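User: Here's a chain of 342 residues. Predict its fold as tokens.
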Amino acid sequence: MAASTRVRRVAPWKLEVIDEFAGMFERYPVVGVLDIADLPATQLQQMRHKLRGQAEIVVSKNTLLRLSLERAVERKDPRLRELAEHLRGQSALVFTQMSWFKLNKILRANRMNAPAKPGFRSPKDIVIPAGETDFAPGPVVSELQRVGIKARIQAGKVVVLEDCPILREGDGISVEVADVLTKFGIQPLELGLKLRAVYEGRLIFSGEVLGIDEKLATEQLQLACISAVNLAINANYPTGVTIGVMIANARAAARNLALNVCLPISEVMPTLLARAHAEMLGLAAATGAKNEGAIDKDLKEMLAIAPTGAKPETKSEDKPAEEKPKEEKREGELAGLGALFG
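Assistant: Prediction complete.
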């Protein structure tokens, strides 16, 4: 009742804006609260252009955004009220059909680094590394020392003596620190749209959850899948993924059992016969080594044992029969003719 009374006091043109925003809550399944603090208007327009056809960004006063949220709560889902907690400072709403994961990935990819500004807070730890610098000797040494950097002039160059943490995450940036970071070419600030919270599928995801390392998450998911499959196999839990492996394991175990107990079934008979044949040859070899006469000729051939006293066969070269001399052949033929005539 209080909420409806508050809406009646709003100017008519504002009511139209509220109704328009509330209608967007109904048309889009994914709604996010954006942090647009310190974002240049030019970059905001660039992001709107890039997201055209994929998402709509609505910038307005937080009061109107909250009122549109209350209207959407009545029409769509009470859980949307939790988004109002994230409407603080410079904010905007984003409406999209894509998943929050894909939306956040696009927003993160379009962030840009910016120089440090006095009064801002550092988004990460910043360390000035030890080593030579390109600075010319002069007042710059005292400027560095003033912010806690151990520096001195060596061989005509300004040298940082050791790694110096100049800012911790969340520290305020002073004028002196901002000037030093600019001299080193360090741009610690990130300008871009940041999701504070997202509504999707009747659930609210906070900014801490949205900052997902995609590569790490993929590796963790793969490891979880492998561990789950191994657990199911070891626990003999039949699923569509594990049943094939379980059947293969059971078949292998049954075959090994049949081999160990010498069970004569078709699956293992070839292996059993091969094993028996090998054991027979081993026994014959051991027996023949002690007493050659104890094994027969067939076994000796299998074991490739030459008979005692046997001489190795030598292959004789086949020579063609020597032809008789032509004269002897001629005389033989005449003798044969003489026999015919008596």
